[in-house]
Amino acid sequence: MKKLIKSPTGIYALTFIIFFVFCIIFVPLLSIGHSGGEQVPMTLLAYAFTYLHYSLICVSILTSIIFRTWFKKYWFINLTIFVVLIFAL
Fold first, then answer.
1. Residues 3-28: pLDDT tens digits?
2. Does residue 28 lie within any of the structural domains?
3. Is 14 within a domain?
4. Mean pLDDT over residues 22-36, rounded?
5. Which domain holds residue 46?
6. How many domains does the chain have?
7. Is residue 8 in a domain?
8. C-alpha distances in Å from residue 61, one per residue of 55, 69, 79
9. Is 9 helix (H, G, I), strand (E, B) or coil?
10. pTM score, two decimals?
11. Do 64 and 43 touch, CB atoms closer than 8 A?
């Protein structure tokens, strides 16, 4: 876990891991008690993707601030991720 937080790519990986844990565990748990005809799991999954989208935008901004030396060397990676995510909105 500590290795994931020490680099920007690790923070991106940690974001995806948290997203997949949410999708696999919490979406079925939150949809318990709803009748079979409702679209609660799909709605929660769609909201999860929007939250993933916004969290990746925030991570791309924060990694450029927190990891300055890495950002000076690999600035194009964060810029590419940020631009692609902004245009995907």
1. 667 888 888 989 999 999 888 888 88
2. no
3. no
4. 80
5. 40-89
6. 1
7. no
8. 10, 14, 9
9. helix
10. 0.79
11. no
